[in-house]
Amino acid sequence: MKNVYLLLMGLLLVSVSSCKKSSVSGNDTGGGTTTTNPTGVDVPAGDGDGVTFINSGKSVVFNLYAPGKKSVSVIGDFNNWTPTAMKNSKDGTRWWVEVDNIDPNTEYSYQYYIDGSLKVADPYSHEILDPANDPAINTPNVVYPNLKAYPTGKTTGIVSDFEVNAPTYTWKNTSFTRPAQKNLVIYELLVRDFVATHTYQELTDSLNYIAKLGVNAIELMPVNEFEGNDSWGYNSNFMFALDKYYGTPNAYKAFIDACHSRGIAVIQDIVLEDQFGSSPMVRMYATSTDPSSGPSASNPWFDQANMHPDAVGWQLNHQQAATQYFTENVMKYWMQEYHIDGYRFDEAKGYTQVNSGTVSNDATEAAWAAYDQSRVNLWTKYNAYMKGLDPSFYVILEMFSANTEESAYANLGMMMWTNLSTPGEQATMGYPTNPSWDISGLFYDGYGFTQPYALVAYFESHDQERLQYKNEQYGNDQFPPYKVTDIPTGLKRDEMGAAFMFSSPGPKLVWEYGELGYDTSIDYPTNTDASRTADKPIYPAYKNDPNRKELFGVYKKMINMKIKNAVFATTNFTYSLAGYVKTIQLLDPSANVEVVGNFDVITHTATVNFPLAGTWYDNLSGTSITVNNTAYSMTLAPGEYHVYSNVVLNQ
């Protein structure tokens, strides 16, 4: 779930964006106040939202959905920032104009000037210039080469940018086959905190490291334009524009292309539940010109008040036809323009008009999570739209709603973000209770699901505290000399946690550098929520630390075994994950697997029920045991674990 941001809604009064491609086709037909204009002129067929290039790029059609406005003009470099009046459509919802004498090889900036008082960005911008934040983008590293100069003295606020003959990207991989959902292992990362230069170029250069780990998908935290630069990206304002803080559109495409060449899918975290105050869609229909003001009753996209207790920004009303049209255009754009392989939808539970209250407490959280048929209907529609464009596209929902509701989504092929950080932390720290260390939530059957590969389960994500930080700060030290707070001991327990997590069938997720035991708090540097989204340090030396390299090696082996052996996708399993000694048994015609681990901080002797007698191979140590009686007695030291199989598994 997204973290709470300081509301920055007044940061930017005007948000003006830019397009370097022709617009998304189609015209919005719903929402907002409409006034029939019998003398109006409709948008020419084929000219979609934003800008459309015509006449071999020598003319541009601007098209803005703005029902209820009295006048709209376009201003920009092409008319020396003097208003060019736009025509109103017959239904009164759209404003458009054709501008001629465009040089296809020149970059142009522009804004819309509404009702003679408000300048805003194009909501369909593909690139923006932001005078408040752009100066920091190329300092100290050149992140976005040849960034156009802001038109200082011509206007104020963010401006849009387009160029007809902008550099294009030639894709090298056009027939990428996505990993099967049952084998999906996702590596979640924030570009800013994964590579020192926070660039797509350095991220691309780091792919050999990620590929060596063996994951087959990378999930990027939001990359579309967001307020400011130093951010997790959940404070969105322009949904069609790539945020320049990480690099150019072509650099992002090159990264995706390089991932595909390595067999790695790219999943994009996206926020379509809300936007922040600098969004032109908020500003066009705000209650006042004050940049901190929120949406008015006439806003065709947004609620005036949020509907649930975890709301930040301004909530989109997904029951409005205009919002659904906009949302589907956003979905389509990134899928087709950037060849991404899936979305992780942040705050998917917030796509509702059922008001559960805005004060967070047990009652409001329960009301929000209750089965919501309107939400099911909406996500059924959106999922069908995306799968209609691309049947194998991944759809992951951060939902956390009633199991019956999540099961409905699973039955449609969607995946559920599944947070097991609390029991996972308790298990690696060595505490059985308060709260429970039962990690049975790794398995789908406990939720009443019939679809076995619908849980994207994790012990760490961007929202949760780091396992190794918890081990070092709060680990169980009650029985020295075995102390979980000792770094080598804590890292060994992280290995054990990984062995169990990856052994459970279905998709799994790893947070960046968890494979090295990243141990700086999520709340660094102040150890308060105020630092939750702050820049975090990177430790290159961790890659050479022997104990951390050993943890990396266990991650690598477990990931490879999970992907390369059918037994790890079986639906024939048993597990016991609530006690001191935890076990998972997987049965498949190709192999049988028995995972056992002592999560306590003292030695335990346990009877492990193997499915058959004979030789069992320890796939992590390279040794083997002979099981003469399937009820096999084992004495396990604290933190000792094994991944046994009756045949040697592929790694």
UniProtKB/TrEMBL annotation:
GO process annotations (BP): carbohydrate metabolic process
Biased amino acid composition, Low complexity: 34-43
Region annotation Disordered: where it falls in the sequence: 23-43
Statement: the UniProt record of this protein carries the keyword Nucleotide-binding: no
SMART domains: Aamy (SM00642)
Keywords linked to the UniProt accession: Carbohydrate metabolism, Signal
Single GO MF descriptor: hydrolase activity, hydrolyzing O-glycosyl compounds
UniProt key word Signal: yes
CDD domains to which the protein is assigned, alphabetical: AmyAc_4 (cd11350)
Ranges for domain Glycosyl hydrolase family 13 catalytic: 188-562
Pfam family, one: Alpha-amylase
Signal peptide: 1-20
SUPFAM superfamilies named among the record's database cross-references: (Trans)glycosidases, E set domains
Listed name of the protein: 1,4-alpha-glucan branching enzyme
Organism of this sequence: Mucilaginibacter mallensis
